[in-house]
Every structure is written in structure tokens, then in C-alpha cells.
């Protein structure tokens, strides 16, 4: 297992600054996911770790060893690409063993390593086939196997599941998670898919414009987003965002947006706040809870529902504010009629409108 330490990393393409003064520590055996929208710098950062992109400033260390200017072949890494990058004229066996053969590894060792990787990935029966005879999921397993046989200290995955259908993505997510648990190597995984990030990662680094916005566990990133961007990027459907301000009523702190008044005395604030401060309230759909009957805090009007099988997504209107929330099949509701809900302010998020930071 190998730790990774990135210090004051800067990357430029000509006059364009992609990232500057980026710092990141990845622990031995950690599964770190770099998550963010297209163009945020996540693939560039991973390529810098792998030696495919040169640093303009700063340094990269593996277990304390400076590898900033080492060639990819000398870094002890295994890479898995989005496009599989398999040789079409070679069998699965030859694709997996290609790097070892180029490194002049003896035949017995190659056969042993290929058999081991094929067994882990459940592709032993495919070893004599060529890529054209494989499904997308099988091709990606071969690509992972090719990286595995190299005895890499660090594995880099660049959106490896994006070309697969939903069912295959779910299956291979599970296989990658099992693989990490089995071999315990350090893994860095790039994706824009939040489901992959939340299910695979030990920690998630959410990126925007070449800057890490938050680095934390999946639960903390989802439940306690560091800023409004992180809060809105994670979650499907997206977090409800309501702009308003803090006020004090009879000594109790409230959030107000027009006729929407919410008692927030139970909210666990990170910083001191003041009455009149302009803020944005962030509410996950699951934090707006059906009240049952007319006993809820707020009366909303259901405008649209979207059955999702085990649950129902509902779009409602409250005094001109649009809200998306979740219903169960057991809830008593009718589209176009009033419906009562409660809001759990302890699980909400407040962001300062000026800075976007969590309060």
C-alpha cells in the first residue's frame, strides 16, 4: 500500500491556469474519489498523479518519494481508462499480459498473475476470446485485470463505467468495491457520477474550477456540504434552495422567505449568525416529511408526482416556493389538493449568500 502527498500543485496549459496551489493527502489503502462536473480538473489531477500530465509547480510524493518528474512506467501505478484501450487483435490473455511481456517477466510468473487476476474478476472463461467477442462490462473487467497484474501500488480509474448501461454500472461498482477490499491497494477514482462516488469512496474530494471544495466521507459530504455548490451538486433530485434571511421572533431565531417562516432554533450552526443576514436554506427532498392529516407545519399544494417504484417524488408549491420531496406509497395524497409536511431543521443546511459557505 502507498500513500500519496500532493503539495502546492500547479498545472497550466500555456496561459490557462487549470489548478494552482492544490494540496491533497491520500492515505495508504484509501479509496479516494475525485468528483465534480466536466472541466473541473479531476481528470487532470489524476493524470498528474499518474505522470500523464506535467506539473507546472509543486510536487507529488508516493510514500515520501518525490515522483513529480518520473515517467508513468516508473511510478508503480496501474491505470484503467474509460475507453478500455484494449488491443483488438490480441486475446484477453495477451491483453492482460502485454505489459508484463514488454517488461521481460518470465512466462511462469505471467501465467500465474494472469490466472490470479482473471479469477478475482471472474473472467477466466474469457481468456482466449478477443475484445470484439466481449460485452462492454467484460471489456472493462479485462482493462482492470491488465492493471492488476502489474502489482501496482496505486490504481487510477478514469471514469471506467461511463460507457456502460445502468445495470452493468451497478454490477461493476460492486466488483470494484470487492476488489479494493480484497487487495487493499490505494485507489484514486475519477467520476462525475455521484452514485459511484457515494457508494465506492472512503473519502470524496468534490472539485470545481480546479479547487477542492470539500474533502470528507460520503456521509458528511452529503449531509453537511461545506458550501452551496457541494450541496447542490450532490443529490438526486437536487437540494431545494430557498433564498431568505434570518430574523428573531420573541427571542427565537427564524428563517424567513416571504410568508415562509421556519423556526431554526435547533439548527447546529458552525459560525455565529445574526438577524437580517441574507442566507440560502438547503433542504434535501427527504428532509421534507409527510405529516399525515392536517397536523403538519406547512400546507403545500401537490402539483406533480413521479412514481419511482419504491418511492414517489412529488413537486409541491408553498406560497410561490417550489419544493421537491419524497412520498411513500402509503401516504394519502391527491395531486392538486393540499398536503401537510414537516421540515426537520436539524438536517437542513444554511449557506451565506455572499460567500456560499455553510453556516
TrEMBL record:
Classification via SUPFAM superfamilies = MOP-like, P-loop containing nucleoside triphosphate hydrolases
Instruction: Enumerate the UniProt keywords alphabetically.
Output: ATP-binding, Nucleotide-binding, Transport
The terms describing its cellular component in GO are: ATP-binding cassette (ABC) transporter complex, substrate-binding subunit-containing
One GO molecular-function entry: ATP hydrolysis activity
A GO BP entry is:
carbohydrate transport
Query: Can you give the residue ranges of the ABC transporter domain?
Result: 4-234
What CDD domains does the database record attribute to this sequence?
A: ABC_MalK_N
Q: Which PANTHER family match?
A: MALTODEXTRIN IMPORT ATP-BINDING PROTEIN MSMX, OSMOPROTECTIVE COMPOUNDS UPTAKE ATP-BINDING PROTEIN GGTA
* Family per similarity comment: Belongs to the ABC transporter superfamily.
Name this protein carries in UniProt: ABC transporter ATP-binding protein
Amino acid at each position: 500500500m502507498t500513500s500519496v502527498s500532493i503539495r502546492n500543485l500547479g498545472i497550466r496549459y500555456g496561459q490557462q491556469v487549470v489548478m494552482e496551489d492544490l494540496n491533497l493527502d491520500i492515505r495508504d489503502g484509501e479509496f479516494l474519489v475525485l468528483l465534480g462536473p466536466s472541466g473541473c480538473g479531476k481528470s487532470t489531477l489524476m493524470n498528474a498523479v499518474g505522470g500523464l500530465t506535467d506539473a507546472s509547480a509543486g510536487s507529488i510524493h508516493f510514500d515520501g518519494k518525490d515522483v513529480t518528474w518520473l515517467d508513468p512506467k516508473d511510478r508503480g501505478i496501474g491505470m484503467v481508462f474509460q475507453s478500455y484501450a484494449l488491443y483488438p487483435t490480441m486475446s484477453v490473455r495477451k491483453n492482460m499480459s502485454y505489459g508484463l511481456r514488454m517488461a521481460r517477466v518470465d512466462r511462469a510468473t505471467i501465467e500465474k498473475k494472469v490466472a490470479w487476476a482473471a479469477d478475482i474478476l471472474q473472467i477466466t472463461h474469457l481468456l482466449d476470446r478477443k475484445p470484439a467477442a466481449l460485452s462492454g462490462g467484460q471489456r472493462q473487467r479485462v482493462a482492470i485485470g491488465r492493471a492488476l497484474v502489474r502489482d501496482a501500488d496505486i490504481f487510477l480509474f478514469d471514469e471506467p463505467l461511463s460507457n456502460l448501461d445502468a445495470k452493468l454500472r451497478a454490477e461493476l461498482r460492486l466488483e470494484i468495491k470487492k476488489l479494493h477490499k480484497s487487495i487493499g491497494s490505494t485507489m484514486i477514482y475519477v467520476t462525475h457520477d455521484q452514485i459511484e462516488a457515494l457508494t465506492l469512496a472512503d473519502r470524496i474530494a468534490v472539485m470545481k474550477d480546479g479547487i477542492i471544495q470539500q474533502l470528507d466521507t460520503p456521509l458528511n459530504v452529503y449531509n453537511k456540504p461545506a458550501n452551496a455548490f457541494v450541496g447542490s451538486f450532490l443529490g438526486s433530485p437536487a437540494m431545494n434552495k430557498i433564498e431568505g434571511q434570518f430574523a428573531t421572533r420573541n427571542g427565537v431565531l427564524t428563517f424567513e422567505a416571504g410568508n415562509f417562516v421556519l423556526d431554526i432554533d435547533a439548527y447546529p450552526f458552525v459560525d455565529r449568525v445574526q438577524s437580517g443576514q441574507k442566507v440560502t436554506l438547503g433542504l434535501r427532498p427527504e428532509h421534507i416529511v409527510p405529516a399525515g392529516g392536517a397536523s403538519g407545519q406547512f400546507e403545500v399544494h401537490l402539483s406533480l408526482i413521479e412514481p419511482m417504484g419504491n418511492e414517489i417524488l412529488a413537486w409541491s408549491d408553498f406560497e410561490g416556493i417550489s419544493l421537491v420531496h419524497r412520498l411513500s406509497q402509503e401516504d394519502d395524497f391527491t395531486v392538486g389538493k393540499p398536503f401537510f409536511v414537516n421540515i426537520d431543521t436539524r438536517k437542513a443546511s444554511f449557506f451565506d449568500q455572499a460567500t456560499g459557505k455553510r453556516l
